[in-house]
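Exam revision sheet. Question 4 asks you to relate a sequence to its structure. Input first:
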Amino acid sequence: MSKVRWGILGVAKIALNRVIPAMKLTSNSEVSAIASRDLARAKEGAAKAGVAKAYGTYEELLADPTIEAIYNPLPNHMHVEWCIKAMEAGKHVLCEKPVSLTAVEAEKLLDARKRTGKLIEEAFAIRNHPQWAALREVVDSGEVGAVRGVQTMLCMSSRDPNDIRNRADIGGGALYDLGSYAITGCRMAFNAEPKRAIGIFDIDPEFKTDRLTSAILEFPNGHATFIVSMQAGPTTGGTHQHLGVIAERGWIRADFPYSHAITSDCHLYIGDTGSIGFHHKRMLTFPPVNQYQLQAERFSKLVRGEKAPQFPIETAIANMRVIDALRRSRESRAWENV
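Answer key, structure tokens:
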């Protein structure tokens, strides 16, 4: 079967440094074109990434009849607009997280999907890593019993004013970026949606973004807490991260649950009722994988009508509802319903 021909909207670092190289490792994906609102930047990005075509507008890329799928790594506030335009142009879409700035905005993608019949997913590469399926298998097997609590942390340090994550006007800040991972991790561990949420925010006086956010999420059968920060931890482009699950008859700990900036094994440590401290009963080891490659392979299979796991846009909307509740909590300083 022929490779899915991809077009890339913009020359974001994540596209040039991670996603395009990963797509080139697949057997079913081909990056055919890249676009920027500046033709010189598009040509520069295409040359760096080894992409044949470069367009000076997003519209030209969407008008290319050979392009079947679009990867959208544009700034957060541009996601929904260009996802809809891509679907209306007959393209399937994989959009970077967070898919929007509000749940109401994200819901527009449901109508676009219905009207066009095109696939649309949020690009959470972590969901493609086999450790998450394994975590769910451990929980679903009953080995540790029902999940009662989840605690997770994800932080990095960036004070670059040109980093879009440090721009409040276009959806920057720790909650939108790192918090979307933490919320996804909590929801996946519980396999449920939280009922209400409360957050505490520390705002950078210069950027006006949240540089440190802590939150509690109340699930039907337990609680989750997380801390995310844009100004703590590594300054090298990587992150400090971990996730822990406590359950009725044991616990699970993941040492590298989210972004993988370095090539390394990942582990799930599983404890039972006799496992004290960090002394686990057993350990699952996952050799290094490229979760962006797995993401592209899986989505391209769906484009070709092949069987593969799906993460419909409804999951992205559910994540945005939690972010909305936490943003309201910032103003009310109280619990907010999700």
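Marking note for examiners. The radius of gyration is 20 Å.
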